[in-house]
Amino acid sequence: MEGMSSDDRFHDPHVTLSKIYTRTGDEGKTSLVGGQRVRKDTLRIEAYGTVDELNSAIGLAITSIPEGSPPLQLLAARLTRVQHELFNLGSLLATETADIRPGQPVITSLEIARLEQEMDEANRTLEPLRSFVLPGGCRLNAELHLCRTICRRAERRAVSLAEQETTLPEAVQYLNRLSDALFVWSRLVSRVLRQPETLWAPNQP
C-alpha cells in the first residue's frame, strides 16, 4: 500500500500449520481473512482459487526448466518470485478492502512495472511476430502457455469481482501484465532451447 516500505509489506507471516483439516468447510463455506463466512463458489473465492491454480501451474513449469542455461536459470528465479507475488495477491483477494491492514502483503505498481521491464528485456532478444503462435514445440513452452491461459482466467475472475465489490485495481493490472509476461517467456524458452515456433495457419486443412 502507498507509503509502506518493502520491510513493512513483506514481513515474516508467522504461520503454523499443525492440522490441515478443520471440518469447518463441510457445509460449503469458508472464511475470508477478516473472518467473514462466505460460500466457496463466490466470486472472491473463485478469484483467489484461480490464482492458487496458476501458482501450482507455474511450479510445474519451473520443474521443467533444464539446468546449465543462465537465461533459463534467471527465468526460474523470476518465476519463483512470481509465485511469492501470487501468494501475496491471493492474500489480498481473500481480504475485503476494509479489512486490509498495515503489514499485509499486497501487490503494487512496483511489481507491475518490474514485469513490464522484464518483458521488454526478453522481447529485445526475440524476432518480431508475423502471426499468432501455437503452444508447443517443447514441454516448457506448452507449460508456460498453460500458465498464461490460467492467468487470463484469473484475470477474468478478478474483473468480475471488481464489478461487484471494491477491490484494489493492482490485482487486475498485475494479472494482465503477468499473462503477457508468460507469453513472452514462452517465446524466450523456445529461442534458448532452439525449438521452432509453430505459427498459426488459418484454415489449414
Set out the fold topology.
Elements: H1 6-9, E1 29-31, E2 37-39, H2 43-63, H3 70-93, H4 109-123, E3 133-134, H5 139-164, H6 170-192, E4 198-199
Antiparallel strand pairs: 1-2, 3-4
Class of secondary structure makeup: mainly alpha
How many β strands by DSSP? 4
Termini gap: 53 Å
- Spatially, the strands of the biggest sheet line up as 1-2
Low-pLDDT stretches:
1-10
Helix content: 55-70%
Number of helices: 6
The largest β sheet comes out as: 2 strands, antiparallel
Apparent shape: globular
Task: Report the mean per-residue pLDDT as an integer.
Answer: 84
Tell me the fraction of residues in β-strands, as a range.
Answer: under 5%
Order of helices and strands: HEEHHHEHHE
Question: How would you describe this protein?
Answer:
The chain is mainly alpha-helical. Helix content is 55%, strand content 5%. The protein is built from six helices and four strands. It has a two-stranded antiparallel sheet. Helix 2 packs antiparallel against helix 3, helix 2 packs antiparallel against helix 5 and helix 3 packs antiparallel against helix 6. The longest helix has 26 residues. The chain is globular, with a radius of gyration of 19 Å. It starts with 5 loop residues before the first helix and ends in a 6-residue tail after the last strand.
Can you tag this structure with a few keywords?
205 residues, 55% helix, two-stranded antiparallel ribbon, globular, mainly alpha, 6 helices
